[in-house]
Amino acid sequence: MAELSVINAQIFYDRTVEAIRDVSLTVAPGEIVCLLGANGAGKSTLLKAISGIMGPERGLLTKGSLNFGGVSLAGMASEQIVRAGISQVPEGRRLFVDLTVEENILMGGFTLPAAERGQRLAEIYQIFPDLVPHRTRVAGYLSGGQQQMVAIGRALMARPKLLMLDEPSLGLAPKIVATIFETIAVLRKAEGLSILLVEQNARIALEVSDKGYVLERGRVVFDGDARTLLDSPEIQEFYLGMD
Ligand code: ATP
Predict the structure, then answer these.
(1) What's the pLDDT at 242?
(2) Buried-state track 219-232, b at ≥16 Cβ within 10 A, e below 16
(3) CA of 217 to the centre of ligand 1 (A)
(4) Which of 42, 48, 37 is nearest to 23 (CA)?
(5) Residue 116: φ, ψ to 5°
(6) Which parts of the chain sit beneath pLDDT 50?
(7) Is the distance from the beta carbon of residue 50 to the nearest atom of ligand 1 less than 6 Å?
(8) Long-range contacts of residues 226-231, Cβ cutoff 8 Å, at least 24 apart
(9) What separation in angstroms does the CA of 193 have from each of 3, 48, 216?
(10) pTM, entire model
(11) Rg of the chain, C-alpha, whole Å
(12) In angstroms, how far apart are the furthest CA atoms of the chain?
């Protein structure tokens, strides 16, 4: 089974700026794990290193080990990482706004044999039936929530084992955020997915997660099961606000 295991990772921009310092974490098969922390804590950097979106050739140097299913991700191109079973939904969704909903979703299926893409597309529409009436519309005209669904659908096209989501709640109304998080919980069961979630909205992230890690200036300062973090006075004071 495919476990993500990050061991003593150090990640540098331009070989010198240390954005992640000695971070270790695991995401077991079928687990939902959230990475919390303020702006600039290093959450997106860790996801970019795991997905290979920004590799050494683009200035991101990783030391320590990043393993998935016992295989090292070091030196793999992002396409190989997708083939290994890891897909990312990037921060800000990054859709091709001039292409249609369907063209955007299909874009995520480049690693599948052509004969399987139609079947997988039908499965994506079963997960997100609200997208069906919009399939031929240009993605830029959709609401923020619908665009987030397209971005998740695109990532799911590759049939990942691990889905990484960077700030899925960004810029969305609370009701839409709740729907997106319900979908995340459903996906874990329906697709047998592991999920690594980066979120500013700590409460909603912990409510859906099994485990959480809190990053501060590139280091893990708290980690534990989600219930314990939700109940922790420090986490409540610094990350959950006063209720
Ligand atoms: P946010 O929620 O703002 O995205 P984050 O926790 O995801 O925050 P990162 O974006 O990973 O944080 O940033 C971690 C550190 O790395 C910050 O100090 C940031 O300034 C620095 N950093 C991010 N991107 C680059 C880059 N391309 N070049 C150099 N430094 C960078």
Answers:
(1) 40
(2) ebebbeebeebbeb
(3) 10
(4) 42
(5) -95, -10
(6) 242-243
(7) no
(8) 226/34, 230/203, 230/206
(9) 11, 19, 27
(10) 0.92
(11) 17
(12) 53
